[in-house]
Amino acid sequence: MTKRILNVVTNVAHYDDPSHPTGLWLSELTHAWHVFEKHGFHQTLVSPAGGAVPLEPRSLKFPNLDKTAKAWHSDPARMALLENTAGPEEIDASEFDAIYFTGGHAVMYDFPDSEGLQRITREIFEQGGVVSSVCHGYCGLLNTRLSDGTHLVAGRKVTGFAWREEVLARVAEHVPYNPEEEMRKRGALYEKARLPFVSYTVVDGNLVTGQNPGSAQATAKKVAAQLLGGPSPRRSV
Q1: Beta bridge partners of 140
Q2: For the chain, what are the domain ranges?
Q3: pTM of the entire structure?
Q4: Which residues pair with 85 in a beta bridge?
Q5: Spelled out in words, what is the top-level CATH class assigned to the domain 4-236?
Q6: Whole-angstrom distance, CA of residue 49 vs CA of residue 72
């Protein structure tokens, strides 16, 4: 049967300061979408509020606007998908084999406290599906609890955008919290690459996470390997 992927995107267009725009980091969606598409997986877009998805302006500039992102951005049909995403209340988790949280600093605001996304994530995870994220997408896992009340990430290896990368990207003073620190507070076994901005992924059972935008393709490949029953090492770079 065709595997079904739920891709999670943001509805937020700016930091706390409206003069600083943000949104979906486009390549974090397109790199994964391309991998899943090549495997013939069926894909759906969902956002915390449903509807339109703003794009992070920096993700549309060279070199961030790479081949897959450029192709998406120039395709009216693909762009239209980001104008009318589903809301969590429209999603039946039992219909999906995996959930993939995309990033961009915007997700720090609307992913963590979305009860709808938490429900979907918990149900997919507990039915044996794959829960995955890339970069700031791991903020969507911060407050998700399992049916026994424990945090999904507690005692599990995860990665995501590192605080050092926030500082180097010169946005540390704009973000609402330190997600690396918040992950550790919830009992997650946070890992990161020795060098910033290099591709780095972590697999812990059916939890698959990638550290930064450059990790999106590798993360999606790990998700695909899980779904197709191929080898998937517990930890890999």
Answers
A1: none
A2: 4-236
A3: 0.96
A4: 51
A5: alpha beta
A6: 22
